[in-house]
Design a protein that fits this description.
It is a single chain. The chain is built from three helices and ten strands. It is rod-shaped and about 185 Å long. The protein is α+β, with helices and mostly antiparallel strands. Among the domains are: about 10-50, no CATH class; about 70-100 and about 110-130 and about 200-228, no CATH class. A three-stranded antiparallel β-sheet has the order 1-10-2, with no helix packed on it. Strands 6-5-7 form a three-stranded antiparallel β-sheet, with no helix packed on it. A two-stranded antiparallel ribbon has the order 3-9.
Length: about 230
């Protein structure tokens, strides 16, 4: 009896079994047919409702989709591996997407995961201030109370010397036999210029801290793939 062998339905021979074959081998043919059909359609687990027209047009529709994107076109896919006909672009990793109205490019240095994380503000401030007061001339009223020691020479009325020196505050003679006067000479000093006062150096130093800010934004990973 003629009995072919094979795994898929394309291995079946349409002319088997021949008319002269006996019934004893009919079960072998039935098992072969069932095995090849199941092997050829392993994922069919329900009723196939597509018509032969739909099935016959699948190839043309797939070809149209494949040619809809020119070679080199880049697209985003929410999957780990690129689809058939596309190549995964691994030059960009841990980056955010930015929408622009002009020429596309790239920039920045902080990765997405590190930039959007829990951050606690902290730091310190240190400043130095220096200067001087404005110039000011001291007035008489602003001076501290004080006294001056003076000396003088007693002279006769005719202007001739004699009598010696008399310090300020010494006892005055009450004698009337001598007539004369006390000749006192004082000199001035000082220019009345203004002066300034230095304020020294004022140092300011402080630290600051704050409550942590959670910037761990929820995200969905995508890949960039290029059309082959």
């Amino acid at each position: 009896m003629a009995l072919e062998s094979g795994t898929y339905i394309n291995s079946l021979v349409a002319t088997n079994p021949v008319a002269t074959d006996g019934l004893a081998q009919a079960d072998d043919h039935m098992r072969l047919i069932k095995a090849t059909v199941l092997a050829s359609f392993p994922n069919i687990t329900g009723a196939m409702t597509a018509t032969h027209t739909v099935l016959n047009g699948i190839d043309a529709r797939v070809t149209a989709l494949e040619t809809a994107f020119a070679t080199g076109t880049k697209m985003l896919f929410q999957q780990t591996t690129a689809p058939t006909g596309w190549t995964k672009d691994t030059s960009s990793n841990d980056k955010a997407l930015r929408v622009v109205s002009g020429t596309v490019g790239s920039g920045g240095s902080a990765g997405f995961s590190s930039a959007f994380s829990s951050i606690t503000p902290a730091g310190s401030i240190s400043n130095t201030v220096a200067g001087s007061t404005a110039s000011h001339a001291i007035s008489v009223n602003e001076m501290p109370a004080h006294s001056h020691s003076i000396t003088g020479t007693y002279k006769r009325d005719d202007g001739s010397g004699g009598g010696g020196h008399f310090p300020h505050g010494s006892a005055r003679s009450t004698s009337t036999s001598i007539s004369g006067f006390l000749d006192i000479t004082a000199s001035d000093t000082g220019g009345g210029a203004g002066h300034t006062h230095g304020v020294g150096t004022l140092a300011v130093s402080s630290t600051f801290s704050g409550t942590s800010i959670d910037l761990a934004v929820a995200y969905v990973d995508v890949i960039i793939a290029t059309r082959d």
